[in-house]
Design a protein that fits this description.
This protein has 3 domains: 4-44; 69-278, P-loop containing nucleotide triphosphate hydrolases (Rossmann fold), CATH 3.40.50; 284-447, 2-Layer Sandwich (Ribosomal Protein S5, domain 2). The protein has helices spanning 45-49, 78-84, 104-115, 130-139, 156-165, 191-208, 229-233, 280-284, 331-344, 370-382, 408-417, 440-447, and strands at 4-10, 16-17, 33-39, 72-73, 88-89, 93-98, 121-125, 148-152, 170-174, 211-216, 236-242, 249-256, 264-270, 273-276, 294-301, 304-316, 324-327, 352-358, 390-392, 395-396, 402-403, 422-426, 434-437. The chain is an alpha/beta fold and 449 residues long. It contains 12 helices and 23 strands. This is DNA repair protein RadA. Keywords: ATP-binding, DNA damage, DNA repair, DNA-binding, Hydrolase, Metal-binding, Nucleotide-binding, Stress response, Zinc, Zinc-finger. Plays a role in repairing double-strand DNA breaks, probably involving stabilizing or processing branched DNA or blocked replication forks.
C-alpha cells in the first residue's frame, strides 16, 4: 500500500518544500505555504492519469453558440448593466469587491430584488443569518418576492449542489472568504480554501448555466483578499470604490470578459439604498466656493466625463520635514508634481506643508489631473484664484510641459453643459473653447489672478 507524506506547497508560485516556513524562498511571498498530503508510492501522477482522458467534443465556429446571442439578466440599474457589458450572463461568474460598509450587500440585495421579479434567485450568506438578510431585503423593497430564496451556509459543497440542482437563474454568495471545503483542514479565508471553494462553485455555475456573484473582501491596502488566481478564475471583477461615510461610490470593472473595462457607475447612498447619480458634475460643484486653492478639473470616470473640484492647502511647516497629504489622489504623483513645480517655476515649496483633496470622495487615476493639481497648489501658495468660468485638464511631464489628454472633446462638452466659458488645456488640442498652454509655468503666469 502506498504511503502518504506531507509537503508544503506555495499557493502563489507552486514551489514545494518539506518543512513549513513563513516566507516562500522561491517567490518571496509571506504565509503562502499550505500543507498538502501526497502519495509517495507507485507511479507518478502523470503516469497514472495517462490514457484516462476522453477525446474532446469540438464544434466549428459557425456551430458554436455566441455569448452575445445569449440572454442576459438585467440588474434593473442601467449604468450597472453598461459596466457589466449588458447584464449578468448565464454561466458567468462575477466577483464584487470593496471595503467594509461600502454597500456591496446593499447593492446586491437591490439587484436580487429586481431580478426576482421574473427570475429565480438564491442569496446565500456566510456572514449573516437568514433573518438578517430578510430585514435588508424588506428595507430595499423585496418583502413580497416569492422567487427570492435565502440561505445561510459556509459549505462550498452545499452551495455548489444547490447551484446544480436548484434551478436558479442567479446565485449570490456573500462572501467567498467565509466558505470552506470540508476536505481541506485550513481555516476559511486561507489561500487554499478560497482557491478550492471558488473552483467548486465556478464549475457548478458553468455546468448548470447559472449566473453567480461572489462577494470578496479587500485588504488594508485595497487589493482583493486571497490569491490572485481568484481574479483569473472569474469572468468579471467589479471594484466598489469611494468613501463609506459619505460622498459618491463608484463601481468599475477591473476585468470583464464580456464587455469594456472603461465604464463606471456612480452611486449615492440614501435611506432607500444605493441610487444612480444622474448628474454627478452638478452635484460635486453645487457647494463650491471660488477661493484660492480651488480648481475645477474636467476628468474621465471610465467613459463618462466628470467635473470635480480639486482643493489644495499650503501652510508653512513647523517641522524640519514638510508634510504631503493627498485624499483621492496618488501621493507619489503629488510628490512628483511638487518637485516639478519647484524646479520649473519660482515657487518655493520645500518648507511648506501641502494638502490636496478631491471633493466627493472620488479617487482619481486620470493622468490629465496633473495640471489641475499643480495649479491648485500654486493658487494656494500664492493666494491667487482662478477665474470662475475656467476648467483645467492636462498631463504634466518632468520638464514642465503640458501633454495631451484622452477624450478631450467629451471633457469640453461636459464643461459647456455646466456653463463654463473656457478650458485651460494642452495647446495641441485645437478648439475655440480651449485656451492652450504649452508648459506649466505659462499656465500659472497667464491665468492665476
Amino acid at each position: 500500500m502506498a504511503k502518504s507524506r506531507s509537503q508544503f506547497i506555495c499557493q502563489q508560485c507552486g514551489a514545494s518544500f518539506s518543512k513549513w516556513a513563513g516566507k516562500c524562498e522561491n517567490c518571496g511571498e509571506w504565509n503562502s505555504l499550505v500543507e498538502q498530503v501526497i502519495s509517495s508510492g507507485g507511479s507518478s501522477a502523470v503516469d497514472k492519469s495517462a490514457g484516462r482522458g476522453k477525446a474532446l467534443k469540438t464544434a466549428s465556429v459557425r456551430e458554436a453558440v455566441a455569448e452575445s446571442s445569449l440572454e442576459r439578466l438585467s440588474t434593473g440599474i442601467d449604468d450597472l448593466d453598461v459596466v457589466l457589458g449588458g447584464g449578468f450572463l448565464a454561466g458567468g461568474v462575477v466577483l464584487v469587491a470593496g471595503q467594509p460598509g461600502i454597500g456591496k450587500s446593499t447593492l446586491l440585495a437591490q439587484v436580487a430584488a429586481y431580478i426576482a421579479g421574473s427570475k429565480s434567485v438564491l442569496y446565500v450568506s456566510g456572514e449573516e443569518s437568514i433573518s438578517q438578510v430578510k430585514l435588508r431585503a424588506e428595507r430595499l423593497g423585496a418583502a413580497d418576492s416569492e422567487k427570492l430564496q435565502l440561505a445561510s451556509s459556509n459549505s462550498a459543497e452545499d452551495i455548489a449542489a444547490s447551484i446544480q440542482q436548484g434551478g436558479y437563474d442567479l446565485v449570490i454568495v456573500d462572501s467567498v472568504q467565509t466558505i470552506s471545503l470540508s476536505e481541506i483542514s485550513s481555516a476559511p479565508g486561507s489561500v487554499s480554501q478560497i482557491t478550492n471553494s471558488s473552483n467548486v462553485i465556478i464549475r457548478a455555475a458553468k455546468s448548470s448555466g447559472t449566473a453567480v456573484i461572489l462577494v470578496g473582501h479587500v485588504t488594508k491596502e485595497g487589493s482583493i483578499a486571497g490569491p490572485k488566481i481568484l481574479e483569473h478564475l472569474v469572468d468579471v471583477v467589479l471594484n466598489f470604490e469611494g468613501d463609506r461615510y459619505g460622498g459618491f461610490r463608484v463601481v468599475r470593472a477591473q476585468k470583464n470578459r464580456y464587455g469594456s473595462t472603461n465604464e463606471a457607475a456612480i452611486f449615492e447612498m440614501d435611506d432607500q439604498g444605493l441610487r444612480i447619480v444622474k448628474n454627478p458634475s452638478a452635484e460635486l460643484l453645487a457647494e463650491r466656493r471660488n477661493l484660492d486653492g480651488s480648481i475645477v478639473l474636467a476628468t474621465m470616470e471610465g467613459a463618462r466625463p466628470l467635473l470635480v473640484e480639486i482643493q489644495a492647502l499650503v501652510n508653512p511647516t513647523n517641522f524640519g520635514y514638510p508634510k504631503r497629504t493627498a485624499s483621492g489622489f496618488d501621493l507619489n504623483r503629488l510628490n512628483l508634481l511638487v518637485a516639478v513645480l519647484e524646479k520649473r517655476t519660482k515657487l518655493k515649496l520645500a518648507d511648506k506643508d501641502i494638502y490636496v483633496n478631491v471633493v466627493g470622495g472620488l479617487k482619481l487615476n486620470d493622468p490629465a489631473a496633473d495640471l489641475a493639481v499643480a495649479m491648485a497648489i500654486a493658487s494656494a501658495s500664492a493666494g491667487r484664484s482662478l477665474d470662475e468660468g475656467a476648467v483645467v485638464f492636462g498631463e504634466i511631464g518632468l520638464g514642465g510641459e503640458v501633454r495631451s489628454a484622452i477624450n478631450w472633446q467629451a471633457r469640453i462638452k461636459e464643461a459647456k453643459k455646466l456653463g463654463f466659458t473656457y478650458a485651460i488645456a494642452p495647446k495641441v488640442h485645437k478648439d475655440k473653447f480651449i485656451k492652450g498652454v504649452s508648459d506649466m509655468r505659462q499656465a500659472l503666469i497667464d491665468y492665476l489672478q
